[in-house]
User: Which sequence fits this backbone?
């Protein structure tokens, strides 16, 4: 009978803390610059804002698409976290929905649309996971308000997320930074229109995330 024992499994090395921080700094800098200048800002400029070398950017993200995808996932994940905060609240369900909508605008979710170009892989597993998590959580936030009789029944997740994206995007020809001060005012006008009972019938059907992805 063999007395040999199996060798213990080798541990997968964990990324160094400084490497994790550098990656986070790159994503943060990219998110800020994509919002300010669009998705085609030079990667060298992103590296400078992040305070890292160009080699560090390419070591973490081999091409622009990989970085853009990470930024899109980051924005959706941060928005999902805002939804989790809303779900953790035990007070007024519609007030929680309101706080989530305003928090979503602060995450600059309006910048996602121009970042997703025709060459962007919208079915990447990371993107799918972030999208599905966000959709599920927003549905829960809206579902609580609906169950409380506070949310009109003819709206869907897509209706809310389109409104957040559109109302937080500055009009063409306007100053992006100065227009920010109007965003939450317009969002509150929109939110007032979501309250039940509805004052009018909406044309068409409630919009879902699936509808948003159709060409």
Assistant:
């Amino acid at each position: 009978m063999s007395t040999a024992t199996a060798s213990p499994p080798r541990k997968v090395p964990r990324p160094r803390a400084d490497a994790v921080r550098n990656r986070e700094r790159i994503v943060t800098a990219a998110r800020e610059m994509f919002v300010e200048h669009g998705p085609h800002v030079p990667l060298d400029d992103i590296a400078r804002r992040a305070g890292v070398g160009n080699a560090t950017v390419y070591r973490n993200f081999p091409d622009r698409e990989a970085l853009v995808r990470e930024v899109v996932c980051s924005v959706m994940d941060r928005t999902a976290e805002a939804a989790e905060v809303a779900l953790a609240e035990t007070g007024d369900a519609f007030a929680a929905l309101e706080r989530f909508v305003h928090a979503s605008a602060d995450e600059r979710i309006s910048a996602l649309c121009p970042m997703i170009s025709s060459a962007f892989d919208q079915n990447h597993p990371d993107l799918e996971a972030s999208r599905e998590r966000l959709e599920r959580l927003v549905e829960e936030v809206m579902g609580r308000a609906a169950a409380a009789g506070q949310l009109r029944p003819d709206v869907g997740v897509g209706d809310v997320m389109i409104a957040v994206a559109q109302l937080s995007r500055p009009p063409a020809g306007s100053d992006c930074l100065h227009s920010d001060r109007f965003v939450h005012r317009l969002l509150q006008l929109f939110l007032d229109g979501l309250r039940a009972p509805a004052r009018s019938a909406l044309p068409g059907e409630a919009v879902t995330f699936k509808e948003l992805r159709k060409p």
User: Anything to note?
Assistant: The chain is about 65% helix and 0% strand.
